[in-house]
């Protein structure tokens, strides 16, 4: 887990109180991301176990024993992963996040955030620090003015993916940079929405005009 703070003019004590407020307020959302992270690996392992079980039934003696051994190893990994989704384990992890805040406060102050249509990119010294896909992340409005708390998990495999599953970032939404492709896509969407709105207005005007004509024609027959 990493904490990035880029807050100016706010004391350490105020930031600590505000961050604790954010974490408590959004605890259920953070828990959902936490569970989703482990469920991703559990579903993958269960699918692999199913394939292994089918292989056990279709293979010959020697390979069957190897597959049985593999199946037992996979089952052991699944049992091991299940321990992380217990409520008390999450609670301990959540408390650890809050206590790590003072030590991590100023370490990543120079981190730059960029965005495209798929991901957020956090860069330090012009090098990629971490990449978070939007589908694996959530933005939570912070109590700290102008700042947003971004929480998510990566798809990468490393030694911290089990003990520290989530990444936490505070960023100023006015400082976020967008890729050229993202800007073009946003402009294209904005133009499309504007055209759709214009079509709807024209259609509504035409409908009203026709209704008036029909009304006048009906009155003329009376």
List key phrases describing it.
16% strand; alpha+beta; three-stranded antiparallel β-sheet; single chain; 2 domains; 5 helices
Short note summarizing the structure:
This protein is an alpha+beta fold.
Largest sheet: 4 strands, mixed
- Strand sequence of the main sheet, in spatial order? 3-2-1-7
- How large, in whole angstroms, is the Cα Rg? 27 Å
Query: How large is the count of helical segments?
Result: 5
Total of domains = 2
Q: Could you describe the 3D structure shown?
A:
With 222 residues, this protein is an alpha+beta fold. Helix content is 58%, strand content 16%. The protein contains 5 helices and 7 strands; from the N terminus they run ααααβββββββα. α1 (12-25) packs antiparallel against α4 and α2 runs antiparallel to α3 (61-82). It is extended. Mean pLDDT is 78; it is low at 182-192.
In terms of topology, how is this protein built?
Elements: H1 12-25, H2 27-58, H3 61-82, H4 87-104, E1 112-115, E2 119-124, E3 127-133, E4 137-141, E5 147-152, E6 167-172, E7 177-178, H5 180-221
Parallel strand pairs: 1-7
Antiparallel strand pairs: 1-2, 2-3, 4-5, 5-6
Transmembrane segments: 41-59, 65-85, 203-221
Keywords: Membrane, Transmembrane, Transmembrane helix
